[in-house]
Amino acid sequence: MTGILLSGAFGKMGKAVCAKVEESKDFQIIAGIDVFDGKSDDFPIYKSFDAVPESVTNRIDVVIDFSNPSAFSGLLDYIVKNKKPAVIATTGLSEEQIVKMKSAAYEVPIFFSANMSLGVNLICELAKKAAKALGDDFDIEILEMHHNQKIDAPSGTALMIADCISSELDEQPDYVYDRASKREKRSKNEIGIQSVRAGNIVGEHQVIFAGTDEVITLSHSARSKTLFASGALSAAKMIAGKENGLYSMKELIDG
Fold first, then answer.
1. Which of 220, 249, 250, 217 is nearest to 134 (CA)?
2. pLDDT, tens digit (0-9, with 9 covering 90-100), for 184-198
3. Per residue in 45-70, is it b (16+ CB within 10 Å) or e — as a string?
4. Cis peptide bond prior to 109, omega within 30° of 0
5. Tens digit of each residue's pLDDT (9 = 90 or more) over 71-123
6. Closest to 226 (Cα-Cα) out of 145, 151, 142, 119
7. Residue 255: its pLDDT value, please?
8. What is the DSSP letter of 172?
9. Rounded to whole angstroms, what are the CA distances from 19 to 9, 26, 65?
10. Are 222 and 204 in contact (CB under 8 A)?
């Protein structure tokens, strides 16, 4: 059985992971991390990684992180110090934090994805193929929609899709988030990324390739957070026992 330290235990995704673990015989949440006061009858909750006692750490096989960028430094320090694999699903990380994570991956196995859905990651692969095939003849736009409580915009998933597309283009495109700030024609070398925050939308992403007389659209709709929890647990199962390095959904999809 895989023992989990769940960072962001009281968040929406933390609760979704807990619910999914209850259905499984393969995982057990040993402890949780959350800065907010709360109580769990199933496992102890600590406010920081520094507060986790050694006796608890010894039972941890993998850390799953659905928390906040502000807790990221403590997470990296903990997994490197204790040589624990980690599944990192927190979005909104800065470039500096990404660099630190890549550095930590030399010392521990880290699975990182801005979106834990297999479907979204397949959309990324399809978008890469479309970008390679269509080249500069099509304008590329990304639309993402989430619930009204989501803090970061654009979503980490939208940026992940844009980065996948960019990797197949001859020239690095500009990401344009606010067309209202300028009055000029759209340049060819750009990817427009638009955000909607409304209601309780779990997650919607559309990738639009618009050419002359035809439009190709790739889309993904998440109907519940359960699919992200399932993806995180699949990643946890894969990363436990792996060699040091940075892993992604590509390794999970490819098996």
1. 217
2. 888 888 999 999 999
3. bbeebeebeeebbeebbbbbbbbbee
4. no
5. 999 999 999 999 999 999 988 888 899 999 999 999 999 999 878 888 888 89
6. 119
7. 61
8. P
9. 11, 13, 16
10. yes
Sign of CA dihedral 15, 254, 246, 129: negative
Catalytic residues, by residue number, are: 146, 150
Per-residue pLDDT tens over the stretch 209-237: 999 999 999 999 988 888 889 999 999 99
Displacement of CA 163 from its chain's centroid (Å): 13
Q: What mean pLDDT comes out for the span 156-176?
A: 92
Q: Which residue has 């933390």 as its token pair?
A: 14
Edge to edge, what strands does the sheet with 245-247 contain?
45-46, 27-33, 2-7, 62-65, 86-88, 109-112, 245-247
Which single residue is written with the structure tokens 């430094």?
A: 73
Q: Distance of CA 202 to CAs 12, 37, 94, 164, Å? A: 11, 25, 23, 22
3-state DSSP assignment of residue 195? strand
Q: What is the β-pairing status of strands 62-65 and 139-146? A: unpaired
